[in-house]
Amino acid sequence: MIAENTQTQMRKGILEYCVLSIIARGEIYASDIIAELRSAKLLVVEGTLYPLLTRLKNNGLLSYNWVESTSGPPRKYYTLTEDGRGILTQLDQTWQELAYAVGISQKGANP
Amino acid sequence: MEKTIIINIGNTIIHIEESAYELLKAYLNEVKHYFANHADDLEIVTDIENRIAELLTEQLEEQKKQVVDAANVNFVIGQMGRVQDFDTVEADAEEEPVKHTTYQAQPTDKKLYRDMDERVIAGVCAGVAHYLDFEAKWIRLAAVLTVFLGGTGILVYALLWIIMPKAKSRIEKMEMKGEPANLQGFQKNLNEELEAVRAHLNEANKHAQPLLAQFGNFIGEFFEWLGRFISGTGKVIFKIIAIIIVIFGVLFLLGLIVGAAAFQGFWDASIYEYFPFSIINEGNRGVILFSAFIVCFIPILALVLFSIRVAFSKQAINKTLSFALLIIWLAGVATVGYQAAKISSEFKQHAELTQTTELKTLPTYIIDIDKSKYFSKEDSIAYHINANQKNQIVVDDFEDGPFVSPNNIRININKSETGTTRLIQKFESQGKTFQSALQNAQNISYTYTAKDASLIFNPRFQLRKGAIWRNQEVWLNFEVPVGTKLIIRENAYRYVNNYGTWDCADKENDSNDYSTWIMTEDGLKCVAQLKEDAIKKKKLKEELLNLELLQKNRPVDTVYQDSVSNRIREVKEELGINPEEN
Predict the structure, then answer these.
(1) CA of A69 to nearest chain B CA: how many angstroms apart?
(2) How confident is the model at residue A48 (pLDDT cuts 50, 70, 90)?
(3) Please, are residues B22 and B170 in contact by the beta-carbon 8 Å criterion?
(4) What is the pLDDT of residue A89?
(5) CB–CB of B315/B402 below 8 Å?
């Protein structure tokens, strides 16, 4: 139970960071984000992604354009806003710090 | 074969099978409830719906299909993920916590539906039972009991039947049972249903019936229920009734055939001499008999055939034949109607002829009735009456039987203006033309006996052989000069038309079977009555004389004078003396 909880906590933070990173590479459609996350073995279902994207958008990190689709309704293509880029830079930094912290924690400060 | 539904999801029109639709609806419900307390629920749900529409469209294109099935929906659900999967990733990261836990803890809202799967009549009781969380049998028991409380139960039941919708889809059934309309609930429901289907595979009919009843309003359902009742619970009762109808119907039909044969003259040709049938002209008898037979026979035959069908669940007659019977019946009705109109037209004209017989003027006449039948020679031979046996008398005492045509005579007693005594016989009849009416009147045969001072009338007239009843009447006008005494026998009372003969009873000699009358200037008077009047008059006159004597006494006493003069006026009035004459 404790392990599960910790895993969830870790995944949640990382998911948001990963999504922002994927979108940072260029305009992208939600299901493509899923495909990327799947190939990265970060298993999520699409249903999870929509509230996340909506929240990020409402916080001003993302914006989207409607793009006509050949199959089905128009699609929302997401891009990062300036704010989003700023946050992502901060997150990149935080991630490096965390990776360092984890590395140090696992191997010790002086090998 | 499955019913398809057209849905609009994410502004895309999609054809979807009913079962798949229910699955999808349950999933979307689940998703909506999950995000219900989320700040951006509308946007999220719209995104998800759009995506679902896209996924479904893609699948249809890939699989080259027109209609979404359950497999497609399951694929979409797999792709989008279950709400449980949403939990593990998003739960605590939300700034606005999702209050799905409270949603699940909420007692699920039940809705009032009619349970068509557990119904006895229309599933009202079962539906109410689900709603109130009772066992259906208790609700049913209560419903049956209320029927005995003035029958209100029936009214309430009918009302609920109309108001409560049927639980048609799985979602509705789940709402009815208060199961959450989400995917777990759905799956549970589906599994239950599948188990039930497996368990009652041989009762597939029963399961299919509610589906049949899907269309059809209250009336339709009611008759469907009635049909089930007839073929089910009420079957035995209806069959017994039907068998009884068949037995009696067949007996009645046989009776009709025998009757028709009798009318046709196989056994008794004289039936047309009796009243209602004596109206019918000889030439038309066959036609009328035949069509009347058809008019009576076919409806009863139809009833019997229908009853056979109910009793033995067998079609006793095919459609063509029954249609032919209907046509024949209508033709019969038309013929009877035509003949009835034709016969009634033969009553259009009226004719009468009179025959006057001068009688001896005697001081006293006796009027009597003789019920003995007088037979003609032909009749005597026909009835095997030996004319040599003088003592043999045939009495016609059949006064008002159902088949006696109205052929009573009527006697009028009048004052003779010429001073002679005579009997005027007036024969009247109806007919199509005056000539035929007259002929019908001439066909009346009537006899009476005038012997010394006795006039003995036959109470009925007869129609000559071959004559038909056209409202013939016989009036006997007996004219006597003033002063002639008449003794009217009690037998004759009912035939005297213009005087109330019953009222003239001799008070002193009550047992008399006759009354005595006298012809006066003012018409016929009852002798007993006259005597009584005379006695009364005499008494009044005596009183008047006394009063006039009394008036001379005590001339000053005004009160006494007034009372005496009042009484005098009264007496004078009774005597018919004009008080002002004095």
Answers:
(1) 9
(2) confident
(3) yes
(4) 92
(5) no
d(CA B377, CA B391): 17
**pLDDT at residue number A45:** 77
- B310, B131, B94, B122: which is closest to B209 by C-alpha? B122
Q: Where are the domains of chain B?
A: 4-105, 124-231, 235-345, 349-521, 530-581
The candidate with the shortest Cα–Cα distance to A60, out of A83, A30, A79, is A83
pTM, rounded to two decimals: 0.41
Say if strands B349-359 and B421-431 run parallel, antiparallel, or are unpaired: antiparallel
Q: Quick check: A12 and B90 CB within 8 A? A: yes
Is the distance from CB of B475 to CB of B428 less than 8 angstroms?
yes
ipTM over 0.95: no
Write out pLDDT tens, residues B325-370.
889 999 989 988 988 888 888 888 888 888 888 888 888 888 888 7
Report which residue type is found at B406.
P
Separation between Cα atoms, residue B46 and residue B497, nearest integer Å: 103
Which strands sit side by side in the sheet containing B523-526, from one edge to the other? B448-451, B454-457, B364-369, B485-489, B514-520, B523-526
CB < 8 Å to A58, chain B = 39-40
Distance CA B146, CA B437 (A): 70
Return the closest-CA partner of residue B127 out of B86, B72, B87, B175: B175
Separation between Cα atoms, residue B486 and residue B401, nearest integer Å: 31
Query: Read out DSSP for B147-186?
Result: HHTTTHHHHHHHHHHHHSPB--SHHHHHHHHT--SSHHHH
- Predicted local confidence at residue B377, as pLDDT: 59
What integer best gives the mean pLDDT of chain B? 77
Nearest-angstrom CA–CA distance, B430 and B38: 100
The pLDDT assigned to B330 comes to 92
Inter-chain contact A30–B31, Cβ cutoff 8 Å?
no
Name the DSSP letter for residue B376: P
Under the banding of pLDDT at 50, 70 and 90, the label for residue A93 is very high
Burial profile B39-55: b = 16 or more Cβ within 10 angstroms, e = fewer: ebbebbbbbbbbbbbbb
The segments of chain B whose pLDDT lies below 50 read 88-107, 202-216, 267, 398-402, 581-582
C-beta separation of B74 from B137 below 8 A = no
**Residue of A48, A51, A74 lying closest to B85 (CB–CB):** A48
Class of domain A2-107 as given by CATH: mainly alpha
Cβ-nearest to B48 among A9, A44, A50: A50
Structure tokens at B301: 């035959």
| Type of residue found at B108 | T
In DSSP notation, B49-78 reads: HHHHHHHHHHHHHHHT-SEE-HHHHHHHHH
Contact B31, B45 (CB under 8 A): yes
Cβ of B233: how many Cβ atoms within 10 Å? Answer: 11
Backbone CA torsion sign across A42, A48, A54, A55 = negative
Instruction: Look at residues B310, B319, B321, B317 and name the one whose alpha carbon lies nearest to residue B246.
Output: B310
CB contact under 8 A, B89 and A75: no
